[in-house]
Amino acid sequence: MIDELLFFMEVLVGGLLAGTMYSLVALGFVLIFKASATFNFSQGAMVFFSVLAFCGFMQDFNIPFVLAFILAALLMVVVGLCTERLVLRPLMNASEDTVLMATIGLGYVLEGLAQAAWGVEVRRLDLGIGDFPVPWIADNLKLFISALDITAGLVAAIMIIGLFLLFKYTKIGLGLRAVADDAGAASSIGIPLKHIMLLVWSAAGVVALVAGCMWGARAGVQFALVDLALKALPVLIIGGFSSIPGAIIGGLIIGAVEKILEVYIGPFFGGAIEGWAPYVLAIFFLLYRPEGLFGEKIIRRV
Amino acid sequence: MTYTKKDLINLSVCMVLSLIIIPTFIKTEYWYTSILIPWLCLALATIGQQIVMGYTGQLALGAAGFMAAGAFAMFNLILRVPDLGFVGSLIVSGLIAAAFGILFGLPSLKVRGIYLMVATLASQFFIIWMIDKFGWFKNYDSSGIITAQDIVILGKPFTTPLAMYLVCLAVTTVLTLLAMNMARGSTGRNWMAVRDMDIAAESMGVSLLRTKVQAFAISAFYCGVAGALFAFCYLKSLEPVAFDIKLSFKILFMCILGGLGTINGAFIGAAFILLFPVFLNAVGNNVFHGAIDATIISSIEQVIFGLLMIVFMIYEPLGMAKLWENLKQKLRSKFLSANIKNLKSLKKS
To answer: pLDDT (tens digit, 9 = 90+) per residue, B39-49?
Structure first.
């Protein structure tokens, strides 16, 4: 009995921690959605692009770790700048769906560019954190929890606290919230819309880079990251598109539920139900609570 | 339903082109097996995507899932219910795909935009998983790749590339005409009313439930039939991997670049997305003599598709069909103004 409970706990904790990885990807979506009401479908591609660039800098040019990370982050700022200039500004008055499709195109561009520049083979990313159980926890609590998962959890926690403080207590954060509320009114009182957008896209790019590092260290830096990042979408639906805590809770729910389903129900169906379980869960949420757990209620005016 | 003179001219031009000119002038198998057949199949799937996305305005991203449902339904029907015959099986497999379409289209009643997209992604992943995991669908074949049965219609085998092309052509023609009729009739008016403003449509007495579910069902029917043809005429094998999310994105691109809310856009978009990589490879081989790696070429292709998507969204959200329309308009006005000038000069003299 106690073994079963321990096993369940292990599955649960593993799932929760893996879920923080989804949260990290979802966080990028939320940042952009909060400031510009744009669904950035290319967030997954940004994850792939940034971490591949990071690996490329490190492995092809032998740039040291920290410098490569800074370079990759700067690259994401440039991507953000170009996106704002070339994609979003011309589409300022376009409908939501049009912008969404343009970001799908943007995702394609980023994926293609990344592969053209750094090749298609799977790269190993070594962060110096092993993907193996932490001995201390294994000895004392009898739980096998990967060090990488714990790191991801910590990184996610730090980023969330940072972003929360930024949004809540800084002038920039106030500007961000103002733009999110009503872009027209915000710009008429002198909030520089362009800078805000640039800032948000750069922040989303850096978040993508961090998420990419975590994913890359686990699964290798490869194209499949884009598909994994798609799972951030059900996370967002569950948590709500405009809520940073929502992204985290959503990620945790998805991570835990998919692991538990996989371990306890999966074997009856031949496994691999992780692939669709989050989406089906999202459908149930959509049917009963379309705005997500923390999202603002969607009100459409006629 | 009445047809204008223009429709009849268009139809006869297309028929002459596809039934007489192409079979007499194109003799190489490559054209049939690698370009014409997949073009027709994917165009059909794109019409399905058009119905739900272009006409009804519901962002859906699960076309390949419905195609897989259609393809495997076809395989099982021919295997287990041989009495149905090819055409019967094709229709029934379309209907099976339509059932999935209804099931996964239901969330569209509550949500739209990216929310719906996520819901339709569920269909994509679920259907592929289901086929993959339950051996029955694959007739307990362990290799993962099943050879498709030969196409036999009324006792006659259709196995040569030309014959398969004709089969695809016939099915595509019938379904395209049907789609055009639906789009022009009250069904299509309802779809478009829902697309343009669902609340207004509802208050005018258009049932959202009926319209949306109908659009999803018909769309999935088209995708299912297209998937069956795609597997039986083009791939000649059945493997769930062939219908992954990439194919869904491809069909989405065909639909958007071709022109949302147009039937001819489906054909233009499918042709473009299919032919452009061929063209790019030819350039790579002939201009650069293979100096560029094939993976780089496919990356460049991806970048160009993405860029085109952005450019079209910014400058012409209605896609290539609209460009074609504009070109025709321009030519027409040019000739017209030339005619008017001629008339004037005639009058003067």
So the answer is: 999 999 999 99
